[in-house]
Design brief:
This protein is α+β, with helices and mostly antiparallel strands. It folds into two domains: about 80 residues, no CATH class; about 90 residues, no CATH class. Helices cover about 55% and strands about 20% of the residues. It has five helices and seven strands. α2 packs parallel to α5. It is elongated and about 70 Å long. The termini are far apart. About 30% of the residues are buried.
Length: about 180
Amino acid sequence: MLRPLSAILLISSVLPVTLSSATGKPLETVCLWVALSMPVAVAAGFLWTQPALTLWNTQPRLLIRRLAVVIACVSAILSVPVSQWPAFVAFHAFQPELERLAERVKKGEAISSPQRIGLFVIYDASISPDRVPCLWTDLNVSGKTGFIQCSDTEQFRYPLWSAHKMSSAWHFVMEE
């Protein structure tokens, strides 16, 4: 009973980290999920691979497969804060809808909020003084997080804590 449960726990430990990134949450939230998920992933990985250690002489491939799954899960968790790959994948899946919303913002249309676009919830859609459309997924008082539509973050005159290029015209940014 413990082995299937630990395998499920190991794989599900990756979900909070990837979903927090894929929904456009701030890096602090993603890192919190990393800190909470890593001990669960390591403990579940140990519980899942431990029985395979006793079978090393007769079934070495079982241990190798299980270790590969554990390494893949831990690597997935650790790679999210560095690369924001779930946000990148989700952005490209819903880019046409984000483009349409940005066009409406450029035209000066009133945008009701919050507005869901795929996995993202846009809490504020505005245009900066530099005429850069901003689609904010988090309105934290210490700095907003979201998507800006400009070819280079230098065009965006606010102090940025982090910027990930999503495409030639879009960045996922976190203000200071």
